[in-house]
């Protein structure tokens, strides 16, 4: 799981559903991250199988839980592979500008 910050005290959290600093219960966030990881894995599988629509649907589910570079890159790849070059380019630009 990707480390994240406790929404209560901003401490780095990576393995335990209880914040090490403020003891906040973060189990719901851990569940959301697990669900997101399942959608990302399903998107990768769909890309490998050539099912671009399923990949996009899974990426959308993952991004709805938490959007990041990984989900935007997968989205761009799915659009690129299905031949939707303008949308792939736009998604790529959103990823680049997110850092700029």
Describe this structure in words.
The chain is 65% helix and 4% strand. β1 and β2 (12-13) form a beta hairpin. The chain has one domain: Serine Threonine Protein Phosphatase 5, Tetratricopeptide repeat (Alpha Horseshoe). The chain has a two-stranded antiparallel sheet. It contains four helices and two strands; from the N terminus they run ββαααα. α1 runs parallel beside α3 and α3 (69-81) packs antiparallel against α4.
Indicate the topology:
Layout: E1 4-5, E2 12-13, H1 27-49, H2 52-65, H3 69-81, H4 85-99
Antiparallel strand pairs: 1-2
Beta strand %: under 5%
Biggest sheet character: 2 strands, antiparallel
What characteristic shape results from the CA principal axes?
A: elongated
At the third CATH level, what is the topology name?
Serine Threonine Protein Phosphatase 5, Tetratricopeptide repeat
- The overall average pLDDT, rounded, is 92
* Oligomeric assembly: single chain
- Using DSSP, what is the number of strands? 2
- Can you tell me the residue ranges where pLDDT is under 50 for at least 5 consecutive residues? none
Name the helicity range: 55-70%
Task: Please tell me the CATH architecture by its name.
Answer: Alpha Horseshoe
Question: CATH top level?
Answer: Mainly Alpha
Secondary-structure element order, N to C: EEHHHH
DSSP helix count? 4
